[in-house]
Design goal:
globular, 468 residues, single chain, mainly beta, 2 helices, 13-stranded antiparallel beta sheet
């Protein structure tokens, strides 16, 4: 069960929303960085040239710099790249960043730290896949990902693909793809610290550090975000047509404490190969307050996510124009929900659900004349193991999914790259094994099911540059 919290009346929610805007009213920012300015940051390190004067007319000198947004690998995709490296100082969350993106709709089921979903171009949240550095975060048991559980301070950028999924990810999605790209260790040592607070007991601390020495480089980040969420709202006592029993009360059991930690280490070989190891950990402990007229006092949800991946990339295999990337990953997720007084839903509940996901994939890029041919192969296994501690038979039934993905595509340009063509084809084999479901009170209901699916996704992307 997710920790979605029903909204309080609108006047209280509005006050709650403003807690984030005042999160960094008092900000402590300590930053130490000796990284030199790069050409992408400054057009030139030389003093700007003086404009010559001719008969009293000042001629124009045009200075250009690299764009702030980085292009995506899929040149014909409807995609947006949102830079994040400067966002944490503004006190934003990933929910706020995605809500400002074109074609993206975010739905919040509460205020800061509460359950939030994303849809693209009117799709349902379950039709959007979310990745962290290409590692899938969308699960078979619940296609909807809670945005409140995802990091922001540790990210370098967010890639939003609207529509058909690019070959850079391991599975297709009907609505679109959101890929969270973590920061890369910098060549020069750097350190930053942000701390602040706001209304309703809101507090935030975020710290990042990056260093390099020889072929080794590393990046470490940790952040904490919490709030009491005890805003006031008008309680109608469950009788909206009778104003005589209305009263102003404080939101109860609405606190949360979320911690996110990330460590990333890279080793660069002399031949251009790079080895990357990443470990990310997320924990959250929050109350589940219930509806406005019947607030709970003790219902609680605890979450844990551990994501690990190892990645090897060779920019050029031997003397051939071939680049290879291999990734292996493992994700463990745990959700514990306790409602021993039956304040939420039907009856007393104490569940402990675990999810195990492991996979490996390889991707190759080959240059052949005017063509850039990309191919990938991925194998992913997922196991969902629920547990109802109050039931006579607390364990099971387990549910599993195995996915095999293969894809190939080409990118080539015509007329001086004024016309870009990107044909691609993706095949996915999905095997599901569902041994039933758990009903009210922990009773096993339903029959075993599942089956195999063969999914084919052909695509042709076209990009035309009408004018320079």
């Amino acid at each position: 069960m997710r920790g979605s919290r029903p909204c309080a009346p609108c006047d209280g929610s509005a006050r709650r929303t403003r807690s984030l805007s005042g999160l960094l009213a008092l900000v402590l920012l300590v930053s130490a960085s000796r990284a030199p300015a790069q050409p992408a940051d400054l057009a030139s390190e030389q003093p700007p040239p003086q404009a010559p004067v001719d008969d009293g007319v000042i001629s124009t000198i045009e200075v250009t710099a690299a764009p702030i947004e980085e292009a995506t690998r899929d040149q014909s995709a409807f995609a947006t790249v949102v830079q994040i490296r400067d966002q944490p100082a503004e006190g934003q969350t990933l929910t706020d960043v995605l809500d400002d993106s074109v074609g993206v709709q975010v739905r919040r089921f509460g205020g800061l730290g509460d359950f939030a979903t994303v849809s693209i171009r009117g799709s349902s949240p379950g039709q959007v896949r979310i990745y962290l550095d290409g590692v899938p975060l969308t699960r078979a048991r619940s296609e909807t990902v809670n945005l409140a559980d995802l990091p922001l301070d540790q990210l370098d950028r967010v890639e939003v693909y609207r529509g058909v999924s690019p070959l850079a990810v391991s599975a297709s999605a009907l609505g679109g793809v959101v890929n969270l790209v973590t920061r890369t260790p910098s060549d020069e040592p750097s350190f930053s610290l942000i701390a602040g607070g706001g209304s309703f007991g809101t507090r935030k601390v975020s710290s990042t550090a990056s260093m390099a020495g020889g072929p080794w480089s590393g990046f470490v980040a940790a952040s904490y975000l919490g709030s009491e969420g005890d805003f006031s709202f008008r309680d109608d006592n469950g009788t909206p047509e009778n104003p005589n029993d209305d009263e102003t009360v404080d939101r109860e059991n609405n606190h949360f404490d979320a911690f996110e930690g990330l460590a990333k280490v890279q080793y660069a070989y002399d031949g251009g190969e790079t080895f990357t190891a990443l470990q990310e950990v997320f924990t959250n402990d929050q109350g589940v307050p219930g509806i406005g007229a019947f607030q709970s006092e003790n219902a609680n949800l605890r979450e844990l996510r551990s994501l690990t991946y190892l990645r090897y990339r060779d920019e050029q295999v031997g003397s051939r124009p071939l680049a290879l990337t291999g990734t292996g990953f493992f994700v463990f997720e745990k959700q514990d929900f306790r409602d021993l007084q039956g304040e939420i839903g039907l009856g007393n509940q104490a569940t402990s659900n675990r999810t195990y996901v492991g996979g490996a994939g390889v991707e190759g890029e080959y240059l052949y004349g005017l063509h850039e041919i990309v191919g990938r192969l991925d194998l992913i296994g997922e196991l969902f193991s629920p547990k109802e501690k109050l039931a006579d038979e607390p364990n099971g039934p387990n549910q599993s999914r195995i996915t095999l993905n293969s894809a190939i595509g080409d990118t080539f340009g015509l007329f001086g790259d004024r016309l870009i063509l990107q044909p691609s084809f993706r095949y996915e084999f999905v095997h599901d094994d569902f041994s039933g479901s758990i009903g009210p009170g922990g009773a096993l209901t339903g029959e075993a099911g599942g089956g195999d699916e063969h999914l084919f996704t052909p695509r042709l992307g076209v990009s035309v540059v009408a004018m320079p």
